[in-house]
Amino acid sequence: MTIDRELIADCIHCGFCLPTCPTYGPLWQEEMDSPRGRIYLMDGLVSGTVPLSATTVEHFDRCLGCMACVTSCPSGVRYDILIEQTRAHIEEHFEREPGDWALRSLVYALFPHPRRLRAALALAPLGRLVPAPGRLGTLVELAPPWRSTEAPSELTPAQATRRGRVGLLTGCVQRVLFGDVNTATVRVLAAEGFEVVAPKWQGCCGALHIHGGRRPDGLERARRTIEAFEWAEVDHVVSNAAGCGSNLKDYAHLLAGDSAWAARAADFSARVRDVTELLAAVGRRAERHELRLRVAFQDSCHPAHAQGIRDAPRAALATIPGLELAEPAEQAICCGSAGIYNIVKPGPAAELGARKAAHVLAVDPDVYSSANPGCLIQVSAGLRRAGRPLPTLHPVELIDASIRGVEAGELLASARR
């Protein structure tokens, strides 16, 4: 994989990215741990003036890929593309030390495979009784105390007048830990007049692989995902997992050089919508019932920075009578989840998670809500470490409860923590 020199040249080194970068500001305050500094390193790799050493790789590994720098950049630098290209270059040309290689291999062998992940999570309580060493222990600690066996039907008819036909990406981690989010998503979309297809043979979308530098695997999973939803013949493909949705929208770019897939990928990406994005665009049809709750809503990085979606989830939640939205501080700063970052870099990830949890608790909410499974897991873990666990819900679960008339107390009692 080559790193695009023209994209590197777009950076004018102004430093507007520095205040929003979590690894520069809250963590290390080192130039090489800022987007600007990493772009200097990328340029050095391309020109041959910087070696692909363990020290160089560490600076790239420290990046969360949160894309806050993309939002803040006045020059339109595509750091999102650059960091993915650089990570692919690293995976092709750098030999990681055995422990790091083994941990990463374990993650990729588990997370994209729901059956394997379920089996591994079933063993997590044993790992807490006999603490595992090093970063493997972090993996055990992060394993949420909840599971979900819910799964939507392959076809759910629209309620009342049909507004369209949509496909739902059910995900991998989402399917295992947040199956109830998938079923809530289907209920909300059906109540709003959409026929919903959840293809049974869909698999992992490849987001973890693309964001982690394992590009060939990610591209192959992208092709399979496109095939699954072409078969479904839908107007839109809906995602309720922010990192996955961002990846789906990137298929057009990722497969642009593949003559057999470029047009299909472009058509697919044009149809992708975050569930809150779709709900905000079509407007409310189903009646909402009062839900008196104070909700700390966190912008996840991939919708806010990679997709530019900030207003949609707030607009969707604003349709719920009685619901009060609270905004924790530092919305632009990542919580430390970032795909597999909280596993391969547990120390800095935990520091960012604690920081985010403290901001959440500062607004004194009844519920913590975010639109990405990684954020829900990471911040929940931070809240548990702080000794103040909160009910944790995806925004679509709040909308679903309001449509179904679930009482606030009942919802809180059943929510994951």
Strand order of the largest sheet: 1-3-2-4-5
- State the low-pLDDT regions, or none: none
Inertia-based shape: globular
State the CATH class of the domain at 285-414.
Alpha Beta
Radius of gyration: 21 Å
Give the N-terminus to C-terminus distance in angstroms.
Answer: 41 Å
Helix fraction bin:
40-55%
**How many β-strands, per DSSP?**
9
Oligomer: single chain
Secondary-structure class: alpha/beta
CATH topology of the domain at 285-414: Rossmann fold
CATH architecture of the domain at 285-414, please?
A: 3-Layer(aba) Sandwich
Word description of this protein:
It is a single chain. With 417 residues, the protein is of the alpha/beta class. Among the domains are: 5-93, Alpha-helical ferredoxin (Fumarate Reductase Iron-sulfur Protein, Chain B, domain 2, Orthogonal Bundle); 285-414, Rossmann fold, CATH 3.40.50. The chain is globular, with a radius of gyration of 21 Å. The strands form 2 sheets. A 5-stranded mixed β-sheet has the order 1-3-2-4-5. A 4-stranded parallel β-sheet has the order 7-6-8-9. It is built from 23 helices and 9 strands.
